[in-house]
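hey team, just a heads up i'm posting the complex here instead of the shared drive bc the drive is being weird again. everything in one block, sequence lines first with there labels, then the predicted structure for the whole assembly after. its two chains so it's a bit long, scroll down
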Amino acid sequence: MENAKNFNNIPKEKFQFAQKSDISHDKKLETKPVGYFQDAFRRFCKNKGAVVGGIVILFLLLFAIIGPFCTPYSVAYYDTTFSTIEPKNKLFENTNFWDGCREKQTGFTTYFEDYAIGLETGNPVIKNGEYTVSDDGVYTYRYDTYYGTGFGRYRTVTMEEYKDIQRYQDETGRQVIYPTVKLSDRPQAIQDKARANLYYKTKTVNGKTQPVVGEDGNPILNYWTYSAADGLPSSAAEYTSKMRIEGENGILKNGEQTFYVYGRVVSGGVELRTNYYEYYCYQHTQVLKDGIEEPYFLFGTTSFGKDIFTCLSSGARFSFLFAIAVAVVNLFVGAIYGSIAGYYGGKIDLIMERITDILGAVPTMIIITLLKLHMGSSSQALVLFIAFFMTGWIGMSATTRMQFYRFKNQEYVLAARTLGAKDRRLMFKHIFPNAIGTLVTSCALVIPSMIYSETNLSYLSIINLEAGNITSVGTMIAAGQRDMMIAPYVALFPSFFLALLMLSFNLFGNGLRDAFNPSLRGSEG
Amino acid sequence: MYMFKYVMKRLGLMLLTFCVIMVMCFTLIKLLPIVVNVGADSDPLVVYKQLEARGYIQNVVQGANGTWSYDRVPIFIQLGYYLKRIFLMGDFGIATTYGEYLNQPVWDVFVEKLPPTILINLYSTLIGVPIGLGLGILAALKKNKWQDQVINVFIILLISVPAIVMGLIIQYFLCFKWGWFPLTMNSGYDYFTWDMFRSMLPPVLALCLGSIAGYARYTRAELSEVLTNEFMLLARTKGLTRGQATWRHAMRNSMVVIFPSILSEFISVLSGSLIIESMFSVPGVGRLYLNSIIFQDYDFFMLLSGFYTLVGLVAGIVVDISYGFIDPRIRMGAK
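-- predicted structure starts here --
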């Protein structure tokens, strides 16, 4: 006690500092500390394939997000006349690739029809007028699928529309209505009676309509005419538009000026020969006003006349949204379930494992079928969502459970427990973060597999997502397979999209997995 | 003895899982309204009496205005009937709504449809395994040389391109554009004629390309790991040539992992690929299953669901067990 008191009274001056240089400091780290995620990111960037995959995924995502806004068409849009239109890009117009044309091999009659359409409308159906003829009379040329729609069949419109088209013609200078052919002058063969493409003189050989070729190799006009003196025939509709076929007023027949008839009055309106390309423009700019100015399909159209670009980008958007939504829900549920099973272990784990075992053993196909049959009336996307959810979270929970088993008995957890951390804090603050890397990876790998299964299911038409403004890549591939013979590009674009998506997600996912695996650190040169 | 116990335990668990799934399926499918398919040329009375005889419904009464009313038999009693018929008579039921096979025993139809599915998958395995293993071995031996790079690119391409796209490419180019094969598989029952084989090749190709890549990747990874082991160095120092060492020591060790995966793939191919089957119109089990869904035919649905579930379960268990058999060092299920 005495001593202790004495110590208290030691004067301050008796103390002296140890030599300052002796005070040892921890060496300040010169380099910045590298965190787990930073390290993962750095190693991910070294993997070129993974980075390229990531960039492609970003690109596809952009396509899915922005694509539907870039086109005037909607998923619900279709036009059966403009069906199986080849993809066209205006930049490639002068090449033989991506120009909206396809190679066509045909006989003389069809060739002449295509040629005549081009001659009358000024829009060449035969690209550059170039064609080759083989010895046995097969004509080969590049057929413009846009202009090739020609006149189709005679179209009956109301008198108001007839007048409106004429107004449109005068305003824009684009000719929609062409001179009509007199009913008695039309081809004899029944199947060709209503075909408006045949404006020239024809003859019928063996029940088939063949053109009569003029001396100069051009078609001989077969228009319905009337002379100024006779006046408009009673069954002809009056045509006041300034747009007329060239040279019309100059035709002299027996020294008398003649005019063409542009419309034939029938019950319910006027029967016209309309150039479908121009009529389409008129319809969409004047009547429907849906922002479509002219037919222009970047990826072509299906045999049903749907725009592939719009459908694909919308389908892609749906797929991405859907897959991400399912992945997030799965991640959430799987992580919680796996944490509980892994942390508590023992009996709880055993029971929970049995449940996932049984659920995991049911083939996805059977789950979807049963759900679909039971929820027939509700949205198919919901059915798919529930089905994917029911099987999807199991993988996530297994991953989390594994990590919990690995880390729950480590000293730092024990330390935290000694300091009084509750179960919940231990689980989510101390153990769960170890699982994040693997979970992120499995998320990245689950998204493409989800898109893949969704595509397969809609391809097999077990799930039909084609409703309203939604479509699916799988449905498009199924449609493309049906049209494979006539229009291979219908399947090309969705297939290419799917393959590219899978490829880049695979590369990306593998890169991510390696990056999050610290044991591989330094092993990749 | 230890192994036997483990196998028994796994089998028991598998059986339990299977039973639970099947009872769930049965209950869920029977909860749906009954589809009564009265064809134009069939007597409603006969159809209803048939359903009554199968134990689906009871108290069939024809009302005054020609409508039929009936009560449904409780589901668990139906399940009892169903199990009784299966175990006592080997009767899996008859098709009640599937138009094409109306009133035919579903088991007979199923057995009749099995050969095309099995054959296609068998051929695909027979082609896929040697090529896949070969490529994998080559890549592992030439690791990080150009051969390895080429094979790696090939593997990642084939694994990534989905079966649906692969099938389309094959169908378009090989079948349509170049006309080497017919577009779809021939129907008929002469499975071993040249014509039939030729028409089977496109689906076989579409199936095996993916599995080739899978085997190659697996083999490469395993083998290249084994090759770095020290016993390989020992094998070389005791005088074996490189080929001998690779074949006798490295291959045998890597097979421990590769063989079970081949086995499991072989079993799971029994269930076939719905996509490939529907794309090439293979008259197999896949189409049967798809149609049984469309027609809501209970007995078909139950039989095929059971089949698919069982194939999946067996494939899983075989992999686990085979590890123990191939490599005695591995004690499955040991603590």
